[in-house]
Amino acid sequence: QQQQITVSRHLEMTLTATVDDPREGGARPPMTPASLAALRSMKELEPSLAEKWANGWDEQNGSVTADENGDVVALDLGGRRLRKLNGSNFEALDKLSTLNLGGTDLPMECIKSIISSIPGLEKLYLGGNGIGTAARVADLAEALPAVPGLMTLDLRYNDMGPDGCAALAEEISRRENIRFLHLEGNEIGDDGAAALGLILSSPTCSIKELYLGGNHINAAGAINLAGAVGANQSLEKLYLEGNGIGPEGADAFSVQLTTLHSKGEAVILTKLYVDNNNIGKNSMKRLARALNSETVVEEMVA
User: Which UniProt keywords apply (predicted)?
Assistant: First the structure.
């Protein structure tokens, strides 16, 4: 069980820590020296972290989580402007499995260096970092092989567009371990959706949840994604809120799902979220029946 680390108010001087164990009414072993040294190096390098951790790690803000042995397993640095962190600050955190760098505006070379230094990483959050162009997305993708066990990749709101999505898709297609992929708000459009459709059609695809809300996906993109549903053996949840798939896009999913049911084939997709897509009541009802689900949001139609 992971326990929240609470560090002494005199962090800058002593860097001592204890983990309270409510089950036993006593203290867990202190945070490991390696973990403390790594956190101290970050604090000394980045003014925003010095401010964040001025009085130690607040148990309520959850920025640092450690296991019962005092090893840091999760680190939330999101929402703070960071400019200098690099791989050397993370090398000692060999148990780190979850890292949030969302909204930090870290330079790409720093992000790549950090990723490459944490081979055991399982969850990586990089939303809101303005990654942008296809070249920069491809640059990021070069670092992903360094984390072979990565299961959650969050790149929401990074302005990657259709070309950036295609560059990411090329790397994702080589990886069989990604389970949860967040790409909300990236304006990937129909071309980006088509690139993701190819991934979903691959027999090696392992994505279970795909988040594509607010991406300017219209009927053509939805048709590509729907076509992939028949071949896919992993996708359980698909989020398409706030796009523009319309009745045509919704009907493409309905037809695909109904066909699978009629053939007696397994339907892996069980949740499809399509609210705010200008679908209309009739197409929404057909889609709900095809999914055999009450979780599809029925639009309010004037």
Answer: GTPase activation, Leucine-rich repeat, Repeat
